[in-house]
Design the sequence.
């Protein structure tokens, strides 16, 4: 029996609001904002979204990574990979207020690792994650 850390679960950013606090996740998102004051990185990924179901926002706490975080990873428009733990959305950082005003769902994540996604091929990434989700659903039946 291994006593090492549990593996992360690859998810879409849109799945984050439905996950349980404490779940270890890995996901991709595009930086839409960064607060140096709070150490919060705001990420979005417009997939799968519709006008009736707006894309959620991930508020990622990067305070544990400040000594290794690169400036390019916090620039608006940068695509980054995040591995961390889903947290309760308690309204800190304006998450709940933003959600009520915009109609968007949001999720908070405590980042353990963050790295640049580089020139990611979004279509291929989205397809791969969806296929992985489908395979996992098939195993649960």
Sequence:
């Amino acid at each position: 029996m291994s006593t090492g850390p549990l593996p992360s679960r690859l998810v879409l950013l849109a799945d984050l609001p439905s996950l349980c606090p404490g779940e270890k996740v890995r996901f991709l998102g595009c930086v839409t904002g960064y607060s140096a004051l709070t150490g919060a990185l705001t990420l979005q990924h417009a997939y799968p979204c519709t006008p009736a179901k707006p894309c959620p926002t991930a508020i990622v706490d990067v305070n544990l990574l400040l000594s290794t975080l690169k400036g390019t990873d916090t620039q608006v428009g940068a695509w980054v990979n995040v591995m961390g733990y889903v947290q309760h959305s308690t309204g800190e950082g304006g998450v709940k207020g933003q959600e009520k005003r915009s109609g968007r769902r949001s999720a908070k994540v405590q980042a353990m690792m963050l790295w640049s996604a580089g020139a990611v091929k979004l279509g291929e990434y989205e397809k791969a994650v969806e296929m992985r989700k489908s395979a996992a659903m098939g195993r649960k039946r």
Summary: The longest helix spans residues 122-140. The two ends are 26 Å apart (CA to CA). Residues 91-101 have pLDDT under 50 and may be disordered. Residues 33 and 54 are 18 Å apart (CA to CA).
